[in-house]
């Protein structure tokens, strides 16, 4: 069952090669066996096997079932699945079980998927290594002394280690693409407004987007086809038609223009990452694509701009964790002290750092100098993309400047950590789509990822390009020892 | 030494609860008075992962109010977050409008005591959501979030008001206009209209504005007047003792009629406003605004002018009728049934209002239809019943819903205008009261009333006074 695509699993279940219960048990066994070391799951759904058996019964009765009926999957722990804990890997959400269903989870459920559980992440999606998680600091399946990346580190590791068929993650500044790159899988950050944010616990509302993290391009396209649907419950969801992205997987990319932005190959990118990505570019050239050198002049301001906008929004979004209505509450004698103690004890250092930064940039007297200025720069960065997409169909660049680093290596230096998202952040400021897929391995044996960036709602083209490369490269998607 | 006199400068911020069926960002009921925490959902509870979706009715209502208050309507306005911690504020921010409110630069004309008109500027009207409510009991504070997400419009005036009386006139006018465009029931007891008053004083009208104090959440017209008057006196006292008025928020205590400091400058709030990334800008099409302009009902000022010119009513009567939209509607329906505007108006202002007070009901619940009231007036005008009988007929029609003409017929209440019969009755009364007759003949004019009363009694109230009076005069001269 390992190594099957979703399409193959669906067919096998329909042909009754194995049952949903067997498939689900297979994943539960793997979680049992490997998750002690990988530490990807914050929560495993005890009812999933019962749910799988119910699907099998319905199938036995000959009921018409949705395409993916009985296939298990898992969710990053900030994506709300009704009646399952949603912790954001934060102590402050200890015990919080949402009484309502999120849209992405609902769409997956409607397509027949079963939820295996919730996956660890950096606390409130703030981090690039999964080390800010309060409950479980996930390890990289390729080398457990290394980080899986973040913030969707649990999702990336679970997919890479075969502890789920696929996972949903969320990407605010690269949180799907960077861990996908570090764990050797495929991650897509869809266009802002493509996937409903209703049921996504917010980090930075104008940047966050849910996306699929999968072993293959085909699975990725299949999952986005399910969750990429307009939703009235999210005002920022855009009313464009749902698409079947698998139809883009033709292998034919002839005549496509791919831009190579020089600013994305700047300092900090290791030689082997650079070389590996350059090989991918050569592969596209060989497939008949036209490679165009381009410039995106405002790239150097992206990290600073991002940290102003994202922390401003986060400081506001995280105000609701006050100990009054849900989650962790500290004991104290007065209301003010209760607020103070709850937030002091409930949030980790990185979250506090960002709340303070965000509060500062929004405060009277600094608002114009920071927040307004950042919004203006954001417009310039968007314009870079608009200009680039007048010349090319897609942009190619390294996802992460390095392969997965050792756990603890960058924890004491937040700025160093922030720079690991240097190539992913700009896209979130623009709002387009971006996909990371494996393109080789470093001398340390760790996966290297290449990134394809596209304009608004151009996910289909990215899948087309990615699939063509994947078919040629034929890279292993899982460490040998975990097979 | 001559006592220094000061001029107050007052601006009002009025929060009006909109009478929509559902809340501003979710589909929960907007009904007042439900069991605590029953009209709530994950969205208005501010649970993690939820998103607001704007109720379009709220925009419609605010634009209606803006048009009625002579505002410019902004075709692109945005929502902002106002961040602060409070136990009844679930998200720790209030969604409001800050830099780009939906309506701006309007005005209301109010009438001053000397009869002149004064124009009060409206700075802005913006949309925002209400917070919840804390109930303090037995050492606990219980949070009721039914009210969170109730749509409010905040109507901010220019500091154009110069007395507590002007403030009251402004509020009264504002309430009337909002009722006319049906955007709120403006019920102050239920909190659907709340007022913050910014008050400062200065030595004369050319002096720059003084330091102002903000008096929060005053909940009746009378209390707004009291609070402003008290605040004015307090500030005068501070200045006359050589002190300085400090900028602060004060609370009005309705029991003592005084204001007290709520928070000082040291914990002044920095709300960290920024555009709410969860909500897209409100973009209004010209057609939307034009349709609402078309819809606009006749507003109080226009109606008042028309009532004076079309019906020949005195200004004071017109004021009364237009003060409540339903009064004006009732009046016009009645006049349509019987064209005696002044007569109808007198009956609306007199008997009908008395009944509303007694029954504590609305005008259309009073039991007497405009057509029936019109018929009562018509019966008087035709000389069929006397004013006294008319009151009896009015009450009975209101109680039973019967036609007044039917009641008059059924009970034989038609007025007696037969001169011979009436002369007989007058003779009998004069004969029964010889002493009074003598005094009356000798010029004691005040006995006129006594005799009329006796004649009415003898005729069981049916004597037509217009005919009786000359007969009485003839027989006693
Ligand atoms: Zn609600």
UniProtKB/TrEMBL annotation, chain A:
GO terms for biological process: translation. The keyword Phosphoprotein does not apply. Keywords: ATP-binding, Ligase, Nucleotide-binding, Protein biosynthesis, Transferase. This is Glutamyl-tRNA(Gln) amidotransferase subunit A. It is an enzyme of class 6 (ligase). It comes from the Bacteria. The active site is at residues 76, 151, 175. Allows the formation of correctly charged Gln-tRNA(Gln) through the transamidation of misacylated Glu-tRNA(Gln) in organisms which lack glutaminyl-tRNA synthetase. The reaction takes place in the presence of glutamine and ATP through an activated gamma-phospho-Glu-tRNA(Gln). Belongs to the amidase family. GatA subfamily. It holds the Pfam family Amidase. Residues 22-462 form the Amidase domain. The keyword Isomerase does not apply. Heterotrimer of A, B and C subunits. Gene3D superfamilies: Amidase signature (AS) domain. Its EC number is 6.3.5.7.
């Amino acid at each position: 069952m390992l190594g099957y695509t979703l399409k193959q699993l669906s067919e096998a279940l329909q042909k009754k090669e194995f049952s949903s219960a067997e498939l689900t048990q297979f994943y539960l066994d793997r979680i049992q066996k490997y998750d002690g070391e990988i530490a990807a799951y914050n929560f495993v759904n005890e009812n999933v096997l019962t749910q799988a058996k119910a699907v099998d019964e319905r199938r036995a009765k000959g009921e018409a079932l949705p395409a993916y009926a009985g296939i298990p999957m898992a969710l990053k722990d900030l994506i709300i699945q009704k009646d399952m804990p949603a912790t954001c890997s934060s102590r402050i959400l200890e015990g919080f079980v949402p009484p309502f269903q999120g849209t992405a989870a609902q769409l997956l459920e409607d397509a027949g998927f079963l939820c295996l559980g919730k996956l660890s992440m950096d606390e409130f999606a703030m981090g690039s290594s999964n080390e800010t998680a309060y409950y479980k600091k996930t390890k990289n399946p390729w080398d457990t002394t290394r980080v899986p990346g973040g913030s969707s580190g649990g999702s990336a590791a679970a997919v890479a280690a075969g502890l789920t068929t696929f996972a949903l993650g969320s990407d605010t500044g690269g949180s799907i693409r960077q861990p996908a790159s570090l764990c050797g899988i495929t991650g897509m950050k869809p266009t802002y407004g493509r996937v409903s944010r209703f049921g996504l616990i917010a980090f930075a509302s104008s940047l966050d987007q849910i996306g699929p993290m999968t072993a293959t391009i085909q699975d990725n396209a299949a999952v986005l086809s399910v969750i990429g649907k307009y939703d009235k419950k999210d005002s920022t969801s855009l009313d464009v038609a749902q698409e079947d992205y698998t139809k883009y997987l033709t292998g034919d990319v002839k005549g496509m223009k791919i831009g190579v932005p020089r600013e994305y190959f700047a300092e900090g990118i290791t030689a082997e990452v650079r070389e590996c990505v350059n090989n991918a570019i050569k592969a596209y050239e060989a497939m008949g694509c036209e490679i165009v050198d381009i410039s995106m002049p405002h790239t150097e301001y992206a990290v600073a701009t991002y940290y102003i906008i994202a922390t401003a929004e986060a400081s506001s979004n995280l105000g609701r964790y006050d100990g009054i209505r849900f989650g962790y509450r500290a004991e104290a004698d007065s209301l003010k002290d209760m607020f103070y103690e709850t937030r002091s004890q409930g949030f980790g250092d990185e979250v506090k750092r960002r709340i303070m930064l965000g509060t500062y940039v929004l405060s009277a007297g600094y608002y114009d100098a920071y927040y307004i200025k950042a919004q203006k720069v954001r417009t310039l960065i968007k314009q870079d993309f608009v200009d680039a997409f007048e010349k090319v169909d897609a942009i190619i660049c390294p996802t992460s400047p390095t392969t997965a680093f050792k756990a603890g290596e960058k924890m004491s230096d937040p700025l160093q950590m922030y720079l690991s998202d240097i190539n992913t952040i700009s896209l979130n400021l623009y709002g387009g789509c971006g996909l990371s897929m494996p393109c080789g391995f470093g001398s340390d044996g760790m996966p290297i990822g290449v990134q394809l960036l596209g304009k608004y709602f151009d996910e289909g083209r990215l899948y087309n390009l990615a699939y063509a490369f994947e078919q040629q490269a034929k890279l292993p998607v899982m460490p040998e020892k975990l097979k | 030494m001559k006592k220094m006199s000061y001029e107050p400068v007052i601006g009002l911020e009025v929060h009006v609860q909109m009478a929509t069926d559902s809340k501003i960002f979710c589909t929960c009921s907007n009904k007042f008075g439900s069991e605590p925490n029953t009209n709530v959902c994950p969205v208005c509870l501010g649970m993690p992962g939820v998103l607001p979706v704007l109720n379009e009715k709220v925009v419609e209502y605010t634009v209606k109010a803006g048009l009625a208050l002579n505002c410019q309507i902004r075709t692109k306005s945005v929502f902002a977050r106002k961040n602060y911690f409070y136990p009844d504020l679930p998200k720790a921010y209030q969604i409001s409008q800050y830099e780009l409110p939906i309506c701006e630069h309007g005005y209301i004309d109010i009438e001053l005591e000397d009869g002149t008109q004064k124009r009060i500027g409206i700075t802005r009207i913006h949309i925002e959501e209400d917070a919840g409510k804390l109930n303090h009991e037995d050492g606990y504070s219980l949070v009721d979030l039914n009210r969170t997400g109730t749509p409010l419009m905040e109507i901010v005036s220019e500091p154009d008001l110069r007395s507590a009386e002007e403030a009251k006139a402004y509020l009264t006018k504002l309430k009337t206009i909002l009722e006319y465009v049906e955007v709120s029931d403006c019920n102050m007891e239920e909190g659907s209209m709340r007022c913050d008053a910014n008050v400062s004083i200065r030595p004369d009208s050319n002096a720059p504005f003084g330091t102002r104090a903000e008096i929060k959440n005053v909940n009746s017209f009378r209390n707004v007047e009291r609070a402003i008057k008290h605040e004015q006196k307090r500030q005068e006292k501070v200045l006359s003792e050589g002190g300085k008025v400090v900028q602060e928020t004060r609370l009005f205590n309705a029991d003592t009629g005084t204001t007290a400091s709520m928070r000082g400058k040291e914990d002044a709030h920095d709300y960290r406003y920024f555009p709410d990334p969860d909500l897209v800008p409100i973009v209004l099409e010209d057609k939307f605004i034009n349709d609402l302009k078309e819809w606009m009902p006749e507003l109080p000022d226009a109606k008042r002018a028309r009532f004076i010119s079309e019906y020949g009513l005195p200004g004071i009567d017109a004021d009364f009728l237009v003060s409540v939209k339903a009064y004006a509607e009732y009046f016009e329906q009645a006049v349509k049934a019987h064209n005696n505007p002044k007569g109808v108006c007198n009956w609306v202002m007199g008997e009908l209002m008395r009944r509303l007070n007694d029954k504590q009901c609305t005008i259309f619940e009073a039991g007497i239809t405009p057509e029936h009231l019109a018929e009562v007036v018509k019966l008087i005008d035709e000389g069929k019943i006397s004013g006294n009988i008319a009151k009896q007929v009015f009450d009975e029609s209101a109680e039973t819903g019967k036609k007044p003409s039917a009641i008059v017929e059924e009970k034989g209440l038609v007025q007696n205008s037969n001169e011979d019969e009436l002369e007989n009755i007058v003779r009998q009364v004069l004969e029964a009261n010889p002493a009074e007759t003598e005094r009356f003949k000798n010029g004691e004019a005040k006995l006129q009333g006594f005799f009329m009363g006796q004649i009415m009694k003898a005729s069981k109230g049916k004597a037509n006074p217009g005919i009786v009076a000359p007969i009485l005069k003839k027989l006693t001269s």
